[in-house]
Specification:
By secondary structure, the protein is mainly alpha-helical. It is 48% helix and 9% strand. The protein has a three-stranded antiparallel sheet. A two-stranded antiparallel ribbon has the order 3-4. Helix 1 crosses helix 3 and helix 5 crosses helix 8.
């Protein structure tokens, strides 16, 4: 997955600046500077530019190790500081409006996936890899006597590697409303909860496009979405912020979202969704 992504960055952002015909020993820092400048000029975020730099600096380092060149010109590049734009989250009013839209699209599997993301904070890849055997119906009762179902998150799906482990390589269990769990099981196609129209699993593109169309219906168009930095991953940030609003301690939030450290979780904690 990593190698394929690096190759993609290289082909898209480096090969159009540095021709493939040039010899390895002829590559210099001025050429690499041009790649970086071109990336920034096209409006790419600093984090993406850092990945582009990795796509050529790692191979150059390997070339030095193999003594194909004596030194790497990438070592003389100015350091790019990563500046992350804060991820946007939905307000409580927007969540209510979105839930109403999702209910109106009850036959749409992407609507059900968005609903589950709001209820669990699951990543896109985790949602799309979900299978029936991950769901245990009516196995828990809460303090009010309501039945809850357990959902085991133990795998994810990625473009190149297919089904793989979760990001932190650990399985986690989240509790969801019994009605939602039953709907997931009933709507599943075979073993897969969210099947694709042309593939076994729902694609990330289809899920993202569906989510954006639902946002459009509640008045969040592409311009507003871009300004607020809202994406499908914002549902995960929104879920964590909802837990924080309910005074759920950070240890429990780490377990619910599958985060390995408080440092990571802090980035998912935003101003209260009620504001």
């Amino acid at each position: 997955e990593y190698c394929k992504n690096m190759e993609s960055y290289y082909r898209k952002h480096v090969m159009n600046v540095i021709p493939a015909s040039i010899s390895l020993s002829s590559v210099n820092v001025n050429m690499l500077d041009k790649v970086v400048s071109s990336a920034f000029a096209s409006g790419l975020a600093s984090g993406t530019v850092q990945l582009i730099i990795l796509s050529f600096s790692v191979p150059l380092k390997e070339a030095v190790r193999k003594r194909l060149i004596s030194s790497s010109p990438a070592d003389n590049l100015l350091k790019v500081q990563r500046v992350e734009k804060e991820r946007g989250v939905l307000t409580s009013a927007e969540i209510k409006a979105l839930m109403a839209v999702l209910s109106a699209h009850n036959d749409d599997m992407t609507a059900l996936a968005v609903k589950l993301a709001l209820a669990t904070g699951m990543r896109s890849g985790e949602l799309r890899a979900l299978t029936r055997d991950n769901i245990s119906l009516s196995c828990v009762k809460d303090s009010d006597g309501r039945h809850l179902s357990a959902l085991t998150v133990d795998k994810s799906i990625a473009p190149y590697s297919g089904i793989k482990c979760t990001k932190n390589r650990k399985a986690r269990t989240v509790l969801i409303d019994d009605t939602l769990a039953s709907e997931l099981v009933c709507r599943a196609s075979g073993d897969v909860v969210f099947p694709g129209k042309r593939s076994k699993y729902l694609t990330a593109t289809a899920l993202r496009s569906g989510f954006y169309s639902f946002l459009n219906e509640i008045g969040i168009d592409e311009r507003v979405r871009t300004e607020r930095n809202l994406s499908f991953h914002s549902l995960r940030h929104t879920f964590n912020t909802l837990l924080s609003d309910e005074n759920i301690n950070v240890e429990e939030r780490l377990l619910a979202l599958g985060h390995s450290s408080q440092k990571v979780n802090i980035r998912y904690d935003h101003v209260s969704v009620a504001k």
